[in-house]
Design a protein that fits this description.
Blueprint (H helix, E strand, L loop, with lengths): L1 E2 L9 H13 L4 E6 L2 E7 L14 E8 L2 E9 L4 H21 L16 H14 L6 H19 L6 H15 L2 E10 L5 E5 L6 H10 L7 E3 L15 E8 L3 E10 L6 H47 L10 E8 L6 E8 L5 E8 L3 H20 L6 H19 L3 E9 L4 E7 L4 E4 L5 E3 L18 E4 L5 E5 L1 H4 L10 H12 L4 H15 L9 E8 L1
Length: about 550
């Protein structure tokens, strides 16, 4: 500090140094005291020329007075927000009060009443005044506490892209400035989730024991202020005292903060009151961060759905091929959460048809990408003339897919069939796929059940070949479980039994009419309920 303090300020040089240093630490360019047309004192991180005329560039100032008599002004350069102005006025009032005590005057304690223009600032001012009246506490600690309150308020007011984890880390550091303690920790308690314990400055060895104590006492969601040995029964001996309070709570989630071992003595009623005041500010800040996180997550999901839909649409073939004697219709309706449904047709040189219908487990982009890979590999096997049956197709396809299925922990149900138009024979293999419904022209209807787990569950497919001799009027419906699992508004599934009854009433019509009638009935059934899974439907009608 460079200074030429007047005699009335000399006894308070140490106080002025402390105030100035706190400002410099919080980002001010420099601090000065000006009066009687000259600079009395100047503090700066770097040497700064300050003229003896009143400064004219950006700054904030507050008057230092004894009663109505002006002694000078306290200037801070590089800070010009509303909160800093209130804080500077409090600093000037502190200096004035020290001077007034020295000369036997009484400071006007009501002068701070006009400082509060907002509820948040008013709370900080009142808290600061309480702290300042604690005679055993040093001014530098009082100033650090107020600075911490300002930082919390500024963090709340400013837009931020910080995550909740980063904010809680900032919050724990700030709490230690407000109430110096050996440790601080936070507990994030979400419904149906494990407790998340985070500590500052480091994770201490007794932290888990404290959490266990709080759980045993059913106090995770309640305030605690423990100081005596009898009150601390069940807590490790290293814990002298504990202050714990909830800073955010809803029906499904609570976040709490705890302080362990107050640096000076025990936690006081003022400490408890202070941390409750901070908790009120924290509640709104956490809500803002969680709301922002929800918006970001919703945007991420929306983007993923759009991309997954594009991937899925790209891999679904154009209209089914023309096969003499067959009427084929295929459609797929993606759900809000795009899944892994697919179907594929491949016509061989002898005009035989190879087709597959499948459903990859999972939702969203991972499922859509795995679906694309599965369909591509099975399609390549369908074009391979050495593959003579659906069983061979599934076995060879799984050989190429199993490692990838294992890596991403997914699987795929697949129905594959070879149709020979010359003999009108259909040979199929079913790896875990349902529903598959065969309706004969004679009026018989049956589910073609799977005899093998889905592809990816085992390293080899157990599916066997089965042959159907088809006749005019026969109908084969291959769908995905999004149809049978369609739910009504009360979350009741449509089910295979009702689906069989529905198919039995419409299968005699053309393939397109059969498919559209089924989907129309499911739409009526699910009015008021969101579609949660893809609905894929392929209908083959023998003409």
């Amino acid at each position: 500090m460079s200074q030429q303090l007047p005699e009335i300020l000399l006894p308070h040089a140490e106080l002025l140094d402390e105030i100035a240093q706190v400002w410099l630490d919080s980002g001010a360019a420099h601090v000065a005291i000006w009066g009687e047309g000259k600079v009395y004192a100047n503090w700066a991180n770097k040497p700064t020329a300050v003229s003896n005329s009143q400064p004219t560039y950006t700054q904030i100032s507050a008057a230092i007075k004894i009663g109505d008599e002006m002694i000078g002004h306290l200037y801070v350069f590089g800070q010009n927000d509303r909160i800093s102005k209130k804080r500077l006025k409090l600093d000037a009032d502190l200096i004035s009060s020290r001077i007034a005590i020295d000369i036997g005057n009484v400071i006007n304690k009501g002068s701070a009443r006009d400082l509060a223009e907002s509820e948040a600032v008013a709370d900080m001012v009142r808290t600061y005044q309480v702290l300042a009246e604690k005679s055993e506490q040093s001014l530098i600690q009082v100033q650090k506490q107020f600075d911490a309150l300002v930082r919390l308020n500024q963090y709340e007011q400013a837009p931020t892209e910080e995550s909740l984890d980063k904010w809680l880390s900032f919050f724990k550091k700030t709490i230690l400035d407000l109430i110096p303690s050996q440790h601080v920790f936070t507990i994030d308690n979400q419904e149906q989730e494990d407790l998340v314990l985070e500590c500052h400055p480091v994770r201490f060895k007794d932290a888990e024991d404290i959490v266990n104590y709080l759980q045993d006492m059913e106090s995770i969601g309640h305030d605690l202020h423990l100081d005596s040995a009898s009150e601390l029964g069940g807590i490790p001996e290293s814990v002298r005292n504990l202050l714990y309070t909830v800073i955010y709570t809803t029906d499904k989630r609570s976040i709490s903060v705890g302080l362990v071992n107050r640096s000076l003595g025990s936690f006081s009623a003022e400490d408890h009151s202070l941390i409750k005041t901070i908790a009120a500010q924290a509640q709104s800040q956490i809500e803002r961060l969680l709301n922002r996180a929800e918006v970001l997550e919703n945007n991420r999901i929306k983007t993923e759905r759009e991309v997954a839909f594009e991937v899925q649409s790209h891999f679904l073939p154009e209209p089914p091929p023309f096969i003499q004697g067959l009427d084929i219709f295929a459609t797929s309706r993606p759900a809000l959460d795009v899944g892994g449904d697919f179907y594929d047709f491949q016509v061989r040189e002898n005009n035989s048809l190879v087709f597959t219908v499948g459903d990859v487990s999972g939702k969203g982009m991972p499922s859509a990408l795995m679906m694309g890979n599965t369909r591509q590999i099975l399609n390549s096997k369908a074009r391979d003339g050495s593959i003579k049956s659906p069983r061979d197709l599934l076995t060879n396809g799984l050989r190429d897919l199993y490692e990838e299925f294992s890596r991403v922990q997914m699987f795929a149900t697949v129905f594959s069939a070879f149709y020979n138009p010359d003999t009108q024979q259909l040979t199929y293999a079913n790896a875990g796929h349902s529903p598959v419904i065969f309706c004969s022209a004679k009026g018989e209807i049956q589910m073609l059940e799977a005899d093998s787990p889905p592809l990816g569950v085992l390293s080899t497919s157990l599916a066997l070949n089965h042959t159907l001799q088809l006749f005019p009027g026969d109908c084969l419906i291959v769908a995905t479980d999004g149809l049978s699992e369609t739910q009504d508004i009360e979350e009741n599934a449509y089910g295979n039994e009702r689906l069989l009854e529905l198919v039995n009433s419409v299968y005699q019509d053309g393939a397109a009419h059969v498919a559209k009638s089924i989907l129309k009935e499911l739409d009526v059934f699910s009015i008021g309920s969101e579609q949660t899974d893809d609905q894929t439907l392929v209908v083959f009608k023998v003409e």
